[in-house]
Amino acid sequence: MADPMAMRRAVAGYVEGIHRAYLKQAETFPPAVQGRLPLIAAGRVTVAAVGARNLHILATTEGLGPTRGQEVELPGSADGLEWVVRFYDPVVVPALGLIDESEGPASEKVRGALGISTVVYHVVTQPGSGLSPHHAGHVGSGLASSHSAAARDFERLRDRARGREALVDEMEGAAVAGLARAQILLARAIRPYDTAVGEAVDAALRPGATPDPDAVRKVLLEAFTGRRSEAELDPSGQEPA
């Protein structure tokens, strides 16, 4: 689209499509699960639409300050959820022009350029493409399903990690905030002497690896379903509490 404002409206419509699909999918979950979904629990978010080589759309509960200079924002709402879409490109944030995405999306660098440390979701697509209502619906329902699966996993972990519920709460808080490495490190703290968990954590944090907290959480859950092995004993030979 040649008209910048038309492009912004298209992105804003895409964001609305994501949120409406998310809310519709959430209706299929029990009320308490709905209440724990990060987007619903937030109630109001700021969505940064960032134009680099890729189009990054990330929702955060962090304040981004008032609009300045050439910054533009468009508000939106649906069924009790409110948001404002803020648009950024290298003209507005020069640091974005230094990000190299020739080998793929540089999500962490994009967040860093905006100073955002926590996200509710982060979606990457191609500018001017993939912004159809159909695609937005897939993204929104997929996000809601992913968030609900995580909420259920954390409930199961609280049930099984007796004495370490506070660590599970911290891990869930890190998940809601989009802090991948914090979740992974907390998995090790919850199950410090488990070989499978340790290997999953080390692999996820290996230099050059893309941290996958969902995969580590699955390994952590599986560790609680089986019988304890010698590998889970601490150096004194005692089973961890």
The total number of structural domains is 2
Range of helix content = 40-55%
The computed structural class is alpha+beta
Overall strand count: 5
Please trace the helix and strand order, writing H or E for each element.
Answer: HHHEEEEHEHHHHH
**Share in β-strands:** 5-15%
Query: Roughly how many Å apart are the termini?
Result: 60 Å
Mean pLDDT across the residues is 88
Return residue spans where pLDDT drops below 50 for at least 5 consecutive residues: 227-241
Helix/strand layout:
Elements: H1 4-26, H2 31-36, H3 38-42, E1 44-51, E2 55-60, E3 72-78, E4 81-88, H4 107-114, E5 121-125, H5 133-160, H6 165-176, H7 180-190, H8 195-204, H9 213-225
Parallel strand pairs: 1-4
Antiparallel strand pairs: 1-2, 2-5, 3-4
Task: Give a brief description.
The chain is an alpha+beta fold and 241 residues long. The chain has 9 helices and 5 strands, in the order αααββββαβααααα. The protein folds into 2 domains: 141 residues, no CATH class; 72 residues, no CATH class.
